[in-house]
Amino acid sequence: MTLQEAFAQQPTWVIWWLNWMAIGILALPLSLLIWKKARRTGAITLVAVVVAAVTIDLMYNSMGYVKLLGLPHIVLWTPLVIFIARQIRRDDMPVWPKRIMAVVLATFLISLAFDYVDLVRWLLGERTPTILPPEG
Q1: Contacting residues for 96 by C-beta, under 8 A, at least 6 apart
Q2: C-alpha–C-alpha distance, residues 92 and 106, integer Å
Q3: Termini Cα distance of the chain
């Protein structure tokens, strides 16, 4: 079973959240490339999202659907939210990129809340995969 198939087995609210994340952390940062002053933020965000996604897929293939899958988000996105928050506060940043960054930032923060809770649960011993890794 692929990671995408495992996602499809999650409760409806999780599927909705994952669909929102495709917009909130992929499409919106892509739109930041329109503005010169926001391009670096958009590019850095997109790189972090792709690296996290690839790492999570590799982890899933070796460990299954475990609470630790959010670790790449924690490692990559925690410093990223600080960076984005600083970009939002820049006086020279146009209004629309600031608004887009605020939505991206909120999406990251909500995701990180789940990821930090899952990491703590994993550290406390909740390590059984809810969905086993693919065979092969």
Answers
A1: 35
A2: 21
A3: 11
Distance CA 73, CA 93 (A): 26
How far is the C-alpha of 88 from the C-alpha of 127, rounded, in Å? 38
Evaluate whether 131 touches 77 at the Cβ level (below 8 Å): no
Each residue's pLDDT expressed in tens, for the chain with a length of 136 residues: 888 888 888 889 999 999 999 899 999 999 999 999 999 999 999 999 999 999 999 999 998 889 999 999 999 999 999 999 999 999 999 999 999 999 999 999 999 999 999 999 999 999 888 776 666 5
> Is the CB of residue 69 less than 8 Å from the CB of residue 55?
no
Q: What is the pTM of this model?
A: 0.90
